[in-house]
Amino acid sequence: MSTLLQTIEKETAPHPTVSIIWMHGLGADANDFVPMLHELDLAGLPAIRFIFPNAETMPVTVNGGYVMRAWYDIVATDLGRQEDEAGLRASQAKVEALIARENARGIPSERIILAGFSQGCAMTLQTGLRQKSKLAGLMCLSGYVPIAAKAAVEHTPESKATPIFMVHGRMDPVIPIARALASRDLLQQWGYSVEWHDYPMPHSLCAEEVDHISAWLKRVLL
How far is CA 74 from each of CA 82, 102, 110, 145, rounded to the nearest angstrom? Predict the structure, then answer.
């Protein structure tokens, strides 16, 4: 069995009963979203273990083969073309190993949220749609459903009970909002419940989004 990904863990109180596995974007690392914990309104929520994993490093084709942290290779700027299916599936297995560790630590799958930004969002959907158990939620920030034709036949009946929170910037130059909207529409066609928000921002986060995340966490965890 491969070793677990390196992670940063932050607990909001002792003896957490909820875990949130939050994945960074291309070229970032586990530290990327740790500061956001101070911006979220977690008042009234049970104790949460936030887990921020580091993707492994690999050469990224679209960046001239430069080695950086990535969940999978990006072969072309047109994200729907030549997708790195092998890389996506390898990282999915690593995320599933983190889910299994939380199960072993006493957190059932229905109290685990997968979250991610950009490539991390793609990994949230890559992994979450294929789970044999309901999760507490999928928090999808500025991303899309990867290998959508495969996801169309591989998503599980159990995963359809998992609520999805999906947000995107209307001026995103990295992942055009049209790609995210197409992903949202696919998810709804497949029978998922998707809460959607878009904002006047590029490939980033904004204060209104943080407020919406806080409100959604309370809806799915209380």
Answer: 8, 30, 31, 14
Average pLDDT, the chain: 96
pLDDT value of residue 76: 80
SS3 per-residue string spanning the chain: CCCCCCEEEEECCCCCCEEEEEECCCCCCCCCCHHHHHCCCCCCCCCEEEEEECCCEEEEHHHCCEEEECCCCCCCCCCCCCCCHHHHHHHHHHHHHHHHHHHHCCCCHHHEEEEEECHHHHHHHHHHCCCCCCCCEEEEECCCCCCHHHHHHHCCCHHHHCCEEEEEECCCCCCCHHHHHHHHHHHHHCCCCEEEEEECCCCCCCHHHHHHHHHHHHHHHC
CA–CA distance, 80 with 99 (Å, rounded to integer): 27
33-48, pLDDT tens digit by residue? 999 999 999 999 999 9
pLDDT of residue 82: 83
What distance in Å separates the CA atoms of residue 154 and residue 134, rounded to the nearest whole number?
A: 15
- Which residues are catalytic, by number? 118, 172, 203
pTM for this entry? 0.97
Domain annotation for the chain: domains and CATH numbers: 7-221 (3.40.50.1820)
pLDDT of residue 146: 97
**Mean pLDDT for the stretch of residues 114-135:** 98
Name the token pair of 146: 């990867």
